[in-house]
Design goal:
Elements: E1 2-6, E2 13-17, E3 23-25, H1 40-46, E4 73-77, H2 81-86, E5 96-99, E6 105-106, E7 112-114, E8 121-122, E9 125-131, E10 147-154, E11 157-158, H3 159-164, H4 169-172, E12 178-179, E13 184-186, E14 197-202, E15 205-211, H5 219-227, E16 237-239, E17 262-267, E18 271-279
Parallel strand pairs: 4-16, 6-12, 7-18
Antiparallel strand pairs: 1-2, 1-13, 2-3, 4-5, 8-11, 9-10, 9-16, 10-13, 14-15, 14-17, 17-18
């Protein structure tokens, strides 16, 4: 099942994607896709709906973040072997956990706004894991039972900001640094999150081309690990690291984003995102 929200920012309606990839209007049945909607009980109700029975949405409306109610935006650093290598950093012995500000969240195709004093704006295509059931001290073998589904995250990063202090939040949490979507794809469609192709290009040039099988720590390991010290609530999202090919790691010189550049990224089965970089305006 592919759930989404569509329409003007702040006025999104609920939607569902049918087998042909077409957007269907779900708003006459549920007005919001929120924490209750993505709970096991809520998803069970939605599975009774045939997407083809819903009204077809014409045109190309804006996609918003696919659900509301994100209380925590958690991220994992250096979780692909080849990315750790290009960053000249050792493989971590346990997941590197940091937080992205919830105010950085935007729709999957909204503009990325280059912040003031930014000179090293970078991209990171990542698998996002959406929690559907409250998770505390869960074991690795049970961890995926707490997941509602998966989505795409661009962990947009400002490397100059990121390297200015030992903590990464400054370089990862600025406004528009967290595009999410276009869809929340439930676990019945993505049964193995460790077998997904992931890619990103800039201005039509392929930059990242990887697969989630190359994660250092699996989705199950990450969910279990984080739940040992941080209760995960329905709607919380974890982005799980990026494969190699980021701008910071390009040879012989780093390549950074500038206003006018366009990023496109996707994950198999989860759709695609597209963002244009624009300059910050007062």
């Amino acid at each position: 099942m592919k759930l989404c929200r569509w329409g003007r920012n702040g006025y999104e309606k609920s939607g569902m994607i049918d087998a042909q990839g077409q957007l269907r209007d779900l708003s006459s049945i549920i007005s919001h896709i929120d924490q209750e909607t993505i709970s096991p009980r809520g998803l069970a109700k939605l599975r009774k709906i045939r997407p083809e029975s819903l009204p077809l949405v014409r045109g190309n409306p804006r996609f918003g973040v696919p659900y509301t109610g994100i209380s925590k935006f958690i991220a994992i650093g250096l979780n692909y072997r080849d990315h750790a290598l290009e960053a000249n950093m050792p493989l971590p012995s346990e997941p590197i956990v940091f937080m992205k500000a919830t105010t950085c969240i935007t729709g999957p195709n909204d503009d990325v706004i280059q912040p003031r004093n930014s000179t090293q704006l970078d991209w990171e295509a990542e698998l996002g894991v959406v929690i559907g059931t409250r998770a505390q001290y869960v074991t690795e073998d049970k961890a995926l039972e707490y997941v509602a589904g998966y989505t795409i995250v661009n962990d947009v990063s400002e490397r100059g900001f990121q390297k200015a202090t030992p903590q990464w939040d400054k370089g990862k949490g600025f406004d528009s640094a967290g595009p999410i979507g276009p869809w929340l794809v439930t676990t019945d469609e993505i049964t193995n999150p460790q077998a997904l192709d992931i890619w990103l290009d800039v201005n039509g040039d392929l930059m990242q081309d990887g697969n989630t099988r190359d994660m250092v720590f699996s989705v199950a390991k990450i969910v279990s690990h984080v739940s040992q010290y941080m209760t995960l609530l329905p709607g919380d999202i974890i982005c799980t690291g990026t494969p190699s090919g980021v701008g910071m790691g390009r040879k012989p010189e780093p390549v950074y984003l500038k206003p006018g550049d366009v990023m496109m990224l996707g994950i198999k089965g989860l759709g695609e995102q597209r963002q244009r970089v624009v300059v910050h305006k007062s």
